[in-house]
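check these tokens.
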Amino acid sequence: MAVQFNHTIVQARDNRESAAFLAAILGLEVGTAWGPFVPLATDNGVTLDFVSVPAEAIAPQHYAFLISDEEFDAAFARIEADGIDYYADPQLKLAGEINHHHGGRGLYFFDPAGHGMEIITRPYGSH
């Protein structure tokens, strides 16, 4: 068997809120809770298992999602409709803009727990 990334645990103030937030942006379905975890599976089989922890215990992380142009259009429309702040750069200097790196499009936003989320239409180094 080849090595494959299978799942990761994502700390949240409210595991259901964070899973539902990201699912709504990406057009995915929240899975059935399993113990303390609320899973969100991506199309390539990787699962983000959201777990509730005290807010002061959360260490903000970065999660990037490679999506199609059509999925980007839909996610971007949901981000704008919900009034979510977004940026073209990870330094958060280009507010309200998207980037066009690697011949695609991308943007950064934050989830309810403060994790940095990124959506891109082309993998880094692809252009």
In short: The chain has a mean pLDDT of 97. The helical segments are 15-26, 69-81.
